[in-house]
## 1
Amino acid sequence: LDPSMQLGLDLTGFGGRMAYAWGSLLTAVRTGTPAYHELFGLPFWEDLEAHPDITASFDALIGPPGHGTPDPEVLVTGGWEEVRTVVDVGGGTGALLAEILRARPEIYGTLVDLPRTVASVGSLLQAAGVGERVSMVGQSFFDPLPAGADLYLLKSILNDWPDREAKLILGRCAQAAHPGGRVVILGGVSPDDRANPELLMMVLLRSKDRTLTEFRELAREAALEIQAAGRLPSGRFAVECRPM
Ligand SMILES: C[S@@+](CC[C@H](N)C(=O)[O-])C[C@H]1O[C@@H](n2cnc3c(N)ncnc32)[C@H](O)[C@@H]1O
């Protein structure tokens, strides 16, 4: 088996969490609330916090072993010359930041993630030879973020959270970015004619993918205005916002 498929199918690791969670689909649909905790004893993020082995397998699945090496081209409108500082919010293994910093030696990065993640993922950035240009910040993205950067990235974050929490995270980015800064969302927003139900996210987290129209309203409530949206060279749909 392809090693990335093995990670998803390993029933002793995070693959097992995804597989068994489907058993809670009917409850999730009937109640509109995830029943993940009924199966595994705790809600999703607390379950990961309590099980370092499952977290390691989750990090591997979302990192290069599972999802491959991310493409550093994350801007819809270009303009990298305006970017000297990037904050990857919920940056996980740091794989995206590593690729951006490798491609652009003039840029400095900050990885924000939960303390347990930040404590365990530095090696990828060191191996990429960019560790010297990265600050690691172990904190929640529901708290004020490191301020004043040119670019805030939210990759595969908003689709983990229902509207109230997603708006809070966007609001933290809007508050932290300087007036000409940008907030870029990769994952969790789809073009209006390509709505994506993301059933697994509903089962795990009561979260969802949003159409661009739905996202525009959420962003506005968080004091962000969409500047551009479109497909990146990687094929990924991205949305670029500026603070209002
Ligand atoms: C689906 S992963 C995406 C990781 C990374 N952006 C990527 O695309 O590979 C979600 C990330 O959010 C982090 N996370 C979850 N809750 C968080 C919180 N309250 N504050 C900061 N990070 C959090 C997780 O640790 C995880 O790394």
## 2
Amino acid sequence: MDRIASGDGAAPCAGHPAPGRAAGRAPTISCDVLVVGGGCAGVAVAAGLRRRRPDCSIVMVEPRAEHHYQPGWTLVGAGVLDVRRTVRPQAALLPDGVTWIRNTATAFEPEHATVVLQGGDRIRYRVLVVCTGIKLDWTAIEGLAETLGRNGVTSNYRIDTAPYTWALVRALRGGRALFTQPEMPIKCAGAPQKALYLSCSTWERRGVLDAIDVRFHNANAVLFGVPDYVPSLEGYVRRYGARITFQSVLRKVDGPARKAWFEVRGDGGAVSLREESFDLLHVTPPQTTPDAVRASPLVNAAGWVEVDHHTLQHTRYGTIFGLGDACSAPNAKTAAAVRRQAPVVVLNVLSVLDGRSPCAVYDGYGSCPLTVEHGKVVLAEFGYNGKLMPSLPWDSTKPRRSAWIAKTRLFPHLYWNAMLRGRNTFP
Ligand SMILES: Cc1cc2nc3c(=O)[nH]c(=O)nc-3n(C[C@H](O)[C@H](O)[C@H](O)COP(=O)(O)OP(=O)(O)OC[C@H]3O[C@@H](n4cnc5c(N)ncnc54)[C@H](O)[C@@H]3O)c2cc1C
């Protein structure tokens, strides 16, 4: 891995000399493949490309020095995993030969096959892969940003607050615990209720669950988007005595007063404001694409990178691909989906570089290991239109101990050692 600290004028990638600085203009560097976003999708694609075509020049733009294993944060919030095991240095993950520019893409100019970086540097590409993930919009809820991580307000959606979830859960002996879920789509749609189930499971084990009023405010109209999994989940909601309010959107939080306000849509469509006090508030924030992507010509009307749902090629720009959370394909936004998407994008990028049409096809697979209690997981695996796609010949709607072992041991291993190394992996 070669690293370029960009901002003062980026250096060229190996084998592709920069044309030099034109009067008054930042230099442009060139590469075969530019990957914007070095999260799970970006690293998997870069590694897969290196594996299949070592002489292809690849540049990755990623601002963060650390790579996060986000699926682990549910377990961090439940006291099952040490947060330090969800972080690795970005530099240790990128394969040799990939040039990492530690910067942020601020503008996309598909007509000129160019991406602009913060500071003005420009990168010209033959093929662009956009995988910037999702922006968590903490400021969309009044008062939330000021109090997050204090006053009983937490979220497993951040590495710095997931440990606070566990601190709160461990300490709670009675009172009221609120869990929220914003409107879809969000990354890992099951994560808001995973936080609820594992917290309740802890309180049940400690004999304090009956003293805690557990409430789930879900902005959507259903508990889970794939109906086959709902009966199992409803069974756990009943077991834990949690009360669900559907179509209830968190609007405002006052941390010091320990109060939250929700807009609740009634059966007739009328919206009312409901105030609830809390001892613990677990928030899942509203989610969109990052600003630079949303402001670019690459997105559809809803703000997602507009791709063909099967080839993941952009529907309007043939030399652009999108995958992961930022893309418009209507799969579950999960690392499990990326595991299936990345090899497809690798093959199709190489086809386009070779002047051929993309032919590899993504089947819509996504997976959500629903941690319904300590020691058991409902391993939801499904594709487009809610079609069940279990990897093993079992009833995937049932909670299983083996699926818990997969979630806590096998999946992290696959993530770090297979997926991020560009290896095609199960499932
Ligand atoms: C609490 C939680 C639980 C989860 N549980 C699971 C689970 O159990 N199973 C599962 O499969 N998935 C789970 N997920 C979802 C999974 O982590 C994501 O779907 C996956 O990380 C998506 O990969 P990505 O590469 O698209 O985005 P990310 O991994 O988020 O990476 C995006 C990268 O793009 C970078 N970036 C953003 N903007 C720019 C820019 N303008 N220029 C350059 N770089 C940019 C970011 O810095 C980031 O590194 C969970 C997520 C969370 C938060």
## 3
Amino acid sequence: MKTSRAEAERLLAIGEKLLQSRDLSSSRDFAILAQEAEPLLEGSDQILAIVEVLLAAEKPITNDHLDWYAILQVDRTCQDLDLIKKQYRRLGLLLHPDKNPFSLADHAFKLVSDAWAVLSDPVQKAIYDRDVAGSVEPESFWTACPYCYFLYEYPAVCEGCCLRCQNCERSFHGLSIPSLPPLVPGQEAYYCNWGCLPMGFVFGNLGSDGPGPGPGPMVENGPTAVAVSNGVNVASRKRGRPRKGV
Ligand SMILES: [Zn+2]
């Protein structure tokens, strides 16, 4: 019968192999399993530290900006330099290539060092915070044109504003409707009708992003509340109610 330690070592060896092949999520799973089997087993926390840092680095905030906060595993609104320093020290100890024998430890260590270089310097941190501030996905709400029942998603700042329907061109009050239209046909529901929209109507100002493969809502990134004509376009319309004025 296997001891829990032998089992933990087996799991950790798998996690290590997965890390070598850069299968980060699976590597993490096995490191966690190893840790659960034998909490004192050396190495599982080192693998976890590498994987968490590399996974955070895979999700940059913009093309130019890695998410330094996620890399140090602190909240993006964190202003607590002591906490940031504590995280840097903890991860630095776990990841230092002299101490951490696993693949990619050097890479993760460099990321943590770079994160600390930015976030520990008030000037660099302020510039970074400013640069990424506009990139956080804006809050939005859904509203419906009361005349033609087209649905729109707008930035939250437009809520309560007078909006202009891009379908029937009438003005209406931008009242929030409680929830996203369900994308499942068959219920007393809304359904997505991307396919029914004339080419160029919906996607005209979305640039290279284009329509995704799925029916997800398209969110206009522009922050202006008044640029109604640049607002988000129709995602769906109400079933059973014919459009008017098309
Ligand atoms: Zn309308």
## 4
Amino acid sequence: MRDKIIIIGASGHGKVVADIARLNGYKEIIFLDDDESKNRNSIYDIVGTSKDIEDYKDEYDCIIAVGDNTVREKIYHTLKGIKLAVLIHPAAVVDKTAVIGEGTVIMANAVVNADVVIKKCCIINTAATVDHDSIIENFVHVSPGVHIAGTVHVGDRTWIGIGGLVVNNLTICNDCIIGSGSTVVRDIKTSGTYAGCPARKVK
Ligand SMILES: CC(C)(COP(=O)(O)OP(=O)(O)OC[C@H]1O[C@@H](n2cnc3c(N)ncnc32)[C@H](O)[C@@H]1OP(=O)(O)O)[C@@H](O)C(=O)NCCC(=O)NCCS
């Protein structure tokens, strides 16, 4: 780990990621954002767009702080093999057997239990819990206050909205959106938007 980090994505989510970086000991924190009209994010400078990463990659650790899973994945593929940091808030609880992939951020008060695997560039947001033996594939966003029970499999780019619940032993396939406050009680095998309690396909 270096003591400088560059964060791609200067939205509100980026600000929260910056503070986790600070708490992880990064002394210098700067941003890139593809909206060229932005030049500050809270107390941090925005020094260019994501294309400028080449100028910083040798000196700075890097992370993508974009909440939209598809956009985050697109940016990841432009980075051409730059290894991303993992950021875990000091107030998160992550079991020592859990495996956390590059580019993943685990936010304050999240809990990741035994033998969980969280792959690349995921967001485990504030106070979310992921229970034992679950597998969270690449570019997933688990929103604040979500609870995922044991041995759940969540596919690539799926977004579980704020306060959602997923019952144990289920699979949710790639590219799903689970509405805020919804409860998933059956496997989801077709990509789409699901909401309600129990969650049903709405789109
Ligand atoms: C699921 C969601 C993405 C759907 O948004 P949308 O694609 O614009 O869809 P709509 O608002 O048109 O809703 C479609 C239907 O699903 C229902 N619906 C939407 N969200 C719902 C929810 N959370 N729970 C129950 N029903 C819901 C709507 O009432 C509507 O039903 P109708 O057709 O009978 O009127 C959105 O409602 C949602 O929950 N987003 C999550 C936001 C979030 O968690 N943000 C946290 C960021 S960290």
